[in-house]
Write a structure and sequence with these properties.
There is one protein chain. This protein has two helices and no strands. The model has no long low-confidence stretch (mean pLDDT 95). The protein is mainly alpha-helical. Helices cover 89% and strands 0% of the residues. The radius of gyration is 16 Å and the shape is rod-shaped.
């Protein structure tokens, strides 16, 4: 969660400065990171479910 907050702050700062390229760059990095985090979570959940099967 702290990383997401920092990423959101960077996005907002770029918007406040009127820098759309920087805002886009920060948004893309944020979305990629969120996607990787979600994939890791799903992988862990899937592994846990498989380990509980008889």
């Amino acid at each position: 969660m702290p990383v997401a907050i920092e990423e959101h702050e960077a996005i907002l700062e770029a918007i406040r400065k009127g820098d759309p390229r920087a805002a886009e760059r920060h948004i893309r990095l944020h979305v990629r990171g969120a996607g990787r985090a979600l994939q890791r979570y799903l992988d862990v959940q899937s592994a846990a479910e498989q380990s509980q099967r008889p």
